[in-house]
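Subject: for your reference before the review

Hello V.,

The reviewers asked for a structural picture of the protein, and I figured it would be easier to keep everything in one thread rather than splitting it across files. Below is the amino acid sequence we used in the manuscript, unchanged from the supplementary table.
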Amino acid sequence: RIQRWLDRQGLYPQAGDPSEYSIFIEACYPLPESRRLYFQEKVRQAKPHIGYQLIGELAAHGIIRSVWTTNFDQLTSRALGDQTISPIEVGIDSAHRAVRAAHSAELLIVSLHGDYRYDSLKNTTTELQKQEKCLERALVQEITNTPTIVCGYSGRDISVMNAFRQAYGQKGAG
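And here is what came back from the structure prediction:
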């Protein structure tokens, strides 16, 4: 019903349009700080589901060493609570850590769009056009040199997709 009303207005994207998330979040919360506070409240109540718990198991067995996410929910870190794995969190404010190799008993967790606790978030179309250069270089290096699994990702983020194109345009083990 809401979507039909929005469609009649002619001002908003159709359901499923790649820009719908960005347009709606910016329309509802035009100030970046308001968006940060909105997500902070939503994330505070979130619990890691089985998929996140499996990440902890895979890391504990040395199968994965890093998680690169466009989410800013810190659920990956929370899911490690029952493991002997230390999360090494990387956000826009700590991008220099992204090039740090994770050691055994560590999991590098890179929040490509920032972490609502510390950073300005990147979640509008304009903000997602360009990735932080340091994080982009580190992501390209990771994809080029390491086998990569992508799951639960829409591919709508131009900056991340550009990093994939750049990495897969190079020779490497990834």
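For the response letter, the relevant points are probably these. The longest helix spans residues 32-44. Strands lie at 66-69, 86-90, 106-111.

Happy to draft the paragraph if you're swamped.

O.
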